[in-house]
Amino acid sequence: MAAKLSDVVYDVIVVGGGPMGLSAAYQCTAKENKTVIVIEKYTFGNAYGSSPGFGRQFRTCYSERNLCELAIETSPLWDELMEELNEKSLLRRTGVLWFGVGTVETGEGNIDKAVENLRDLQQKYTLLEGKEDILKDERFSFVSQAVNDIDKPKALYLDDGGTINVLALIRSLVKKLKEKETGLLEKANVECIDYSSQYVLKLSVVSDQKQQLIYGKKVIMTPGADVNCLLSTLQPAFTKRINLLIYLWGSTYFKSKKTVDQMPGTQSDSCEWPVWIFFGQPDDSSTEKAQNLNVFYGFPNEKMKSCYAKVAPAFTSSQIFDFELYAPSIENRPLDLNALHFTSAFVEKSMPSLSPTLLEDEFATCLSGFAVLVSGSKTEDDQSAGFVLDFLPGEGINKRLVLYTGGWGMKFVPVIGKILADLTIRGRTDYSKLIEPMNINRGILVEDKDISQTKSGQKQVGLTIS
User: Fold this and answer.
1) What is the H or E stretch that residue 405 is in?
2) Exposed, middle or buried, 396 (CB in 10 Å: 0-12/13-18/19+)?
3) How many CB atoms lie within 10 A of CB 142?
């Protein structure tokens, strides 16, 4: 940048340079012609938050009605974004398959509720009921044996689903932002967000061991699971924290028994697989130390790993992998090996084209926080999968701080980027009805003084989670 940061007053400062923050910055610059700087604690494209690995799932099936609608709204925006960024690989539509027990409730949702939403919203889908119909459908033969032990299995299939290329998404957004001369500051830690002036916000940032001040009119906060650490930097002090449950989900890749070249055009060719989620009943033999919830998800293979397919547990095997309020530090994040062993057993039993051998050099941890209601709050059936998307409340803030955190949000990157830009620039959005269940005042805030331990990443005590 030609000018010193302290000489510039940006229209918008984005704190958090993951896909959501970059998408919001892109909307503010490319669509709204605002001056923007993005501040990232690590590097753009890092693997420390909720975006590690090469791919994430896109789907329009959701148990939550508003998220189902939001995903449907997002689908054409992915096509629009690929056109604008000149990168057709951002979303590869291979279809999406949910199958297993229709009534089982999981962190990924519920088949029966998703079907109800899709039907009410007049979406196209295929629903198979019973083992015979599922097992004979060649589209799902790569994993359909998983329903053998289920009395009345169901399979929900939609064409509008597939794999989001996370690295291509981040790189394309960064490239476009550079073209727009957007400020991009990485390896920079925000130590203070001072909103005491009604005219300008002042951020104290440490980068390359040097402290600098960055001034702006509005701030978009997309800190992921580090949200409570960021809230602690506000001055005047913001005394509340998001009641966040943070999960460390393990993931890994399994090698194909034969290469794609040897078995093209078949369901052994994992290029053709849909993204999928299996909903099983929890294993009765589970113990307190290692519980197998029997819910798994997977992908077709990826260009960067053509002989491998990603299969992962959609759960943690023990509470030692679940954290409250503050995420564990990078060096103190345990790997859920028990859940990965359960995944290997699932592959061995249900996915004959993959080798079930666990490959240690392929292990990864995906971290995500979910906002949950505090005990005693009004309970709602729909908590929007733990998302928070709202103005930060408080005297003096005056809609100048917009916050997004929580949930698995990669599917919604284009639309949430647009919503964040709308709220920041105009103070409103056309999607207000769909994000209303994500409001910050729905009973998910706790007083900072009630938090009994430090922000070291250790489990917090003294709070009752509903």
Assistant:
1) strand 401-405
2) exposed
3) 25
